[in-house]
Amino acid sequence: MRLTLRIWRQRGPERPGAMTTYEVDGISEDMSFLEMLDTLNERLILEGDEPVAFDHDCREGICGACGMVINGQAHGPERTTTCQLHMRHFADGDTIDVEPWRAAAFPVVKDLVVDRSAFDRIIGSGGYVTAPTGSAPEAHATPVPKPVADTAFEHAECIGCGACVAACPNGSAMLFTSAKVVHLNVLPQGAPERESRVLDMVAAMDGEGFGGCTNTGECALACPKGVPLQAIATMNREFLRATRKGAR
Amino acid sequence: MYPALPTVCVMALATRTVRRPSPLATLWRSTVGKKTVMAVTGVIMLLFLVVHMLGNLKIFFGSTDFNGYAHWLRTIGEPALHYSWFLWITRVVLAASVALHAVSAYQLSRRDLAARPTAYAHRRPRASYATRTMRWGGVILGLFIVWHLLDLTTLTVNPRGEAGHPYQNVVADFRNWYADVVYIVAMLALGLHVRHGFWSAAQTLGANNARRDSALKFTANALALVLTAGFIAVPVSVMTGVVS
Ligand code: HEM
Ligand code: SF4
Ligand code: FES
Q1: B101 lines ligand 1 (CB under 6 A)
Q2: Which of B24, B32, B113 would you mutate first to test chain A, the one with the most A CBs within 10 A?
Q3: Among residues 166-195 of chain A, which lie with CB inside 8 Å of chain B?
Q4: Are A76 and A181 in the same domain?
Q5: What's the farthest any 2 CA atoms get from each other in chain A?
Q6: Are residues A103 and A126 in the same domain?
Q7: ipTM score for this prediction
Q8: Where is the 4Fe-4S ferredoxin-type domain (chain A) (predicted)?
Q9: Rounded Cα distance, B3 and A232, in Å
Q10: I need a surface site. Which of A113, A190, B51, B234 has the fewest CB within 10 A?
Q11: Helices assigned H by DSSP within chain B
Q12: Which long-range contacts (CB under 8 A, 24 or more apart) does A93-97 make?
């Protein structure tokens, strides 16, 4: 396959950037999108150019590092991560636009790399359970009904990739934050911090400069892990409940 | 067994002294809480609009019925309430709702636009359809509310403007093409606003879940359709001479 790429190039934070056009040839349709970028980068390095910077780690769809917006869609046309997106979803001769996540809370570090540490601070504010450290707990000590375990798992699948923020016209982190809140709030292990968790995580989310939710639903369409839009309704319910109780 | 007991106690006390702001402050300061204000005030306005629309349809029973209904509205609650008191209580609640709804919408929209300062070079307009119709539709509705009050409540801009004769004022009004255009455009904006707003309010108030989602969306569409059609029926009937 032969492709024309228009990629956002930006030398560093606070530096101006621009969409820059590259031609790549000899792309196999079995390559992943990242392997296609690797091919381009090998050539750029041989030509003495700066390679395109992008985040990646596991390359198997579980770490959430490989965020980029492809043709206006977070992670591109398929509902998966960029590392699991294959070139067979594009046609020979296509022009493909590649841009970084765009959100005030995710400043560009370089090219396609953004700083997602705002997510870490939201997690730090309440995305944990207080558990005794040391020996592993006895597996049957805290029974969890199967439907509850399923709900918790559905939301625990979030890999913190940030596609929800990138897709949202308001740069809102509600889907991410609600995935974490619901995951822990439905479990008995999360019960002691049920109220403080949602209040603190929503406050941290607002504090990072993410936008509010207008229920457009773009986040859930973009989420590679299928975190449902209703997670946001559940978090809203938990937030109102905690506010009523005037949580300590 | 617990050599560090004193430290543990101090830490526990220190944690406990962290005071949360009052529930109202928590609501107003957070995006989630401010959205709740929008949802609650939106639902109050929506309930009013359903009653208002049904009341308007009384115009098809003639001027005696319609004007009598308008008079009756002022006598609700008598003798516990004095003449017009119920109407004034409703007006205060609605004015407060419109103000809170609009201030929240303005503040949240400012924040949302700031959270996404750079647009994507590759545009997909569909992505912000609901958000944009809600904002522009809301502004249209706000302007319409002002015009509507000047027209049929204070009668300032009404071509007839005779207090106590709403039927005649409505008919005089809708004989003008521009009044029909303003009214119909505003009611279409209302339909779009309610179509997203009703479902959105359920989501904001935490009333939505996977099982209810399609029923709520259906209700939102039905409500939008019935409200718009019901309100538009009046100017259309005057224009076509069904009501005169
Ligand atoms: C005619 C009366 C109105 C009714 C019945 C109404 C109803 C609603 C409802 C139920 C919501 C959903 C709240 C939520 O998402 O939880 C909403 C949202 C909204 N309303 Fe209104 N509204 C009215 C007038 C206005 C006005 C005058 C404005 C303009 C200032 C406005 C602007 C908005 C905005 C910007 C949203 C948020 C949109 C979004 O969720 O993306 N509305 N409205
Ligand atoms: S909710 Fe989905 S899109 Fe958002 S960070 Fe988690 S996995 Fe990514
Ligand atoms: S590189 Fe880990 S999810 Fe793509």
Answers
A1: yes
A2: B32
A3: 167-172
A4: no
A5: 63
A6: no
A7: 0.92
A8: 149-179
A9: 44
A10: B51
A11: 5-16, 23-29, 31-56, 63-73, 85-115, 129-148, 166-174, 177-204, 213-239
A12: A93/A1, A93/A2, A93/A3, A93/A4, A94/A3, A94/A4, A95/A3, A95/A4, A95/A5, A95/A6, A96/A3, A96/A4, A96/A5, A96/A6, A96/A70, A96/A71, A97/A6, A97/A19, A97/A69, A97/A70, A97/A71, A97/A72, A97/B121, A97/B122
Q: ∠ CA(A39), CA(A44), CA(A50), 5° rounding?
A: 125
pLDDT string in tens for chain B (244-residue length): 344 444 443 444 445 556 778 889 999 999 999 999 999 999 999 999 999 999 999 999 999 999 999 999 999 999 999 999 999 999 999 999 999 999 999 999 999 999 999 999 998 766 667 777 899 999 999 999 999 999 999 999 999 999 999 999 999 999 999 999 999 999 999 999 999 999 999 999 999 998 999 999 999 999 999 999 999 999 999 999 999 8
Contact state of B116 with A6 under an 8 Å Cβ cutoff: no
Are A12 and A52 found together in one domain?
yes
Which of residues A52, A76, A109 is at a domain's end? A109
Cβ–Cβ gap B134/A202 under 8 Å: no
Number of domains in chain A: 2
> How far, in Å, is the centroid of ligand 1 from the Cα of B200?
9
Residue in B36, B118, B203 closest to A232 by CB: B203
Residue A236 touches partner B, C-beta closer than 8 Å? yes
Could you tell me the pTM of the whole model?
A: 0.91
- Which domain range does residue A59 map to? 3-109
SS3 of residue A18 by DSSP: strand
Between the CA of A227 and the centroid of ligand 2 the distance, in Å, is 7
Residues of B with Cβ-Cβ distance to A203 under 8 angstroms: 30
CATH number assigned to the domain comprising residue A35: 3.10.20.30
A215 touches chain B (CB under 8 A): yes
Which ligand sits nearest to residue B42's alpha carbon?
A: 1
Q: Are A54 and A111 in contact (CB under 8 A)?
A: yes
Instruction: Give the model confidence (pLDDT) of A164-202 as tens digits.
Output: 999 999 999 999 999 999 999 999 999 999 999 999 999
Is B127 in contact with A199 (Cβ distance < 8 A)? no
Asked whether A223 lines ligand 2 (CB < 6 A), one says: yes
Could you say which of B115, B129, B131 has the minimum Cβ distance to residue A210? B115
Q: Do B196 and A232 touch (CB under 8 A)?
A: no
8 Å CB contact of B208 and A230: yes
